[in-house]
Amino acid sequence: MVRIILMGPPGSGKGTQADLLSTHFDILKISTGDILRKATYSKTTLGLEVQSMMDTGRLVPDSLIIQLVKTTLQISQCKKGFLLDGFPRTIEQATALKESKIDVDYVIELQLSDDLIIERLSGRRVHLQSGRTYHTVYHPPRQENIDDMTGESLVQREDDQQETIQKRLAIYHQYTHPVTEFYSTDYQVDQKIRYCVISGLGSAQEVFGRILKTLSK
After folding, report:
1. Which of 43, 157, 167, 213 is catalytic?
2. Which of 16, 17, 91, 195 has its CA 20 to 30 A from that of 32?
3. DSSP label at 195?
4. Dihedral angle at the C-alpha atoms of 76, 79, 83, 87, nearest 10 degrees?
5. Could you confirm whether 37 is annotated as catalytic?
6. What is the pTM of this model?
7. Nearest CA among 83, 106, 85, 114 for reference residue 183
8. Per-residue pLDDT reduced to its tens digit, 1-41
9. Among this protein's residues, is 194 annotated catalytic?
């Protein structure tokens, strides 16, 4: 059994590593986005409450997210382990998880400089009809801003614009980065939990290899 919390700023490759780790260890990947979507489909009292908040543009409070995560962790699939992708996002969530006596084996933090993240994300270009992605530096199309297959125009999504990326990073540093400090300091006295910092530089397989090497020590 292995129970992992995976953290990292937007653009650090966290989503890719979450998929690789969940497949490698055959454990359930749990993200708050997936949980919220499933809750709205369930039509339970809690799900309807979440749906109402999302429909009116309100943020789902920590108390509800924590309740949904705790409920998910009780399902049978989680008995052989789990990976929490992007949860906890706040000190309040991290504290609630600790107080719930939910055991965790590893907290993995992917680190990458803001400059590299901005370069990674702002360089992405997408062919909307097919979903094909390119990068102005790492994987450019044969003709600038033109899809190789169709000859149609590529676009830069709003999420990949520099101003948007900087705002997302600012939110991460303000709210989520303190959580990494929570685990790296508060949990140092708890020998059951290992806090691991992994460089996000390089290809997805290179980063994955670093993670596996660190976990095997």
Report:
1. 157
2. 195
3. E
4. 70
5. no
6. 0.85
7. 106
8. 899 999 999 899 998 999 999 999 999 999 887 888 887 88
9. no
Matching residue, tokens 């919390």: 5
Q: What is the 3-state secondary structure (H, E, C) of 14-77?
A: HHHHHHHHHHHHCCEEEEHHHHHHHHHHHCCHHHHHHHHHHHCCCCCCHHHHHHHHHHHCCCHH
Cβ-proximal residues to 185 (8 Å cutoff; 6+ apart), any chain: none
106 touches 125 (CB < 8 A): no
* Annotation says 125 is catalytic: no
Q: Which residue did the predictor score with more confidence, 74 or 142?
A: 142
DSSP assignment string, 92-141: HHHHHHHHTT---SEEEEEE--HHHHHHHHHTEEE-TTT--EEETTTB--
Residue 201: name the closest of 209, 189, 193 by CA.
209
Question: Is-catalytic flag, 167?
Answer: no
Of 93, 55, 77, give the one whose Cα is nearest residue 47. 55
Tokens 């992708």, located at residue? 85
Look-up of token digits 């990976």: 83
Domains of the chain listed by start with CATH number? 2-112+161-216 (3.40.50.300)
Name the active-site residue from 14, 120, 125, 210.
14
Spatial CB neighbours of 67, under 8 Å, sequence gap ≥ 6 = 46
Question: Of 37, 98, 132, 168, which one is the catalytic site residue?
Answer: 168
Is 89 labeled as catalytic in the residue annotation?
yes
Round to whole Å and give the CA distance between 187 and 192: 9
